[in-house]
Amino acid sequence: MNDSVDKLVIFLAKRDGIDKLVKTFQYVSKLVNWHVEASHPATAKRFKQWEVAAGLSRKAFRTGRFLTGFNVLRRNPGSTLSLRLLAVLANAGEMVYFFFDHFLWLARIGTIDASLARRMSFISAFGESVGYIFFIIADFILLREGLRVERKMRSSEEKTEEDEKGIRRIRSDRVMRLMAVAANVADLFIAVADIEPNPFCNHTVTLGISGLVSAWAGWYRNWPS
Question: What distance in Å separates the CA atoms of residue 177 and residue 60, rounded to the nearest whole number?
């Protein structure tokens, strides 16, 4: 019990930990609002307000986050030329997303012209989509490479203790990368809903489930081991 409490404290001390918790609030309230809108309009209104407040608070909390892309590229540029190129494109898209998200937040709270909100939302979501696509491609390349290395280790006639440890590391990395792919695909649906509104991506259930998949995959990845 104490170990779980300690991990929760560590998780919530992280910027990403808080973001995933508030994102859960945001998309649960979106789904509840949709579910009770016809039968309990007063309750639906409260959950709509919670959704909006959670969304705006997440944008405020992400102030300056676009700079993290520089740090990621500096610390882990990629092991091959193709992965370095994918890392640059993915992080560039994410930086555009976070940078223009600041202006979207300011437009929605009335600090700057509210008519700019739609334009800022489009630019932010476009950068976000580009980033997610390249992140997904890079993760699939690394997943394939991990499988190749694991098969090679398993085919060895005399597996050493180091081989066993290496296989465990590869499996652990695979789970984390699959969680990243799930989160990025889910967020891509949300971004497409902003770029090119359509009945499927913009449906409340699609957005709600996508938001929760992203939040909970991120929760798993950030939870202390």
Answer: 28
Q: What is the token pair recorded at 169?
A: 């590391």
Residue 133 phi, psi (nearest 5): -60, -45
pTM of the model: 0.91
Residue 163: enclosing H or E segment and its boundaries?
helix 161-195
Indicate if the alpha-carbon torsion angle 189, 13, 106, 64 is positive or negative. Answer: negative
Q: How far apart are the first and last CA of the chain?
A: 15
Residue span of the structural domain in which 93 resides: 2-222
Q: What is the pLDDT of residue 98?
A: 95
Domain count, the chain: 1
Give pLDDT tens digits for 40-68.
999 999 999 999 999 999 999 899 888 88
Cβ burial of 186 (10 Å; 0-12, 13-18, 19+) is buried
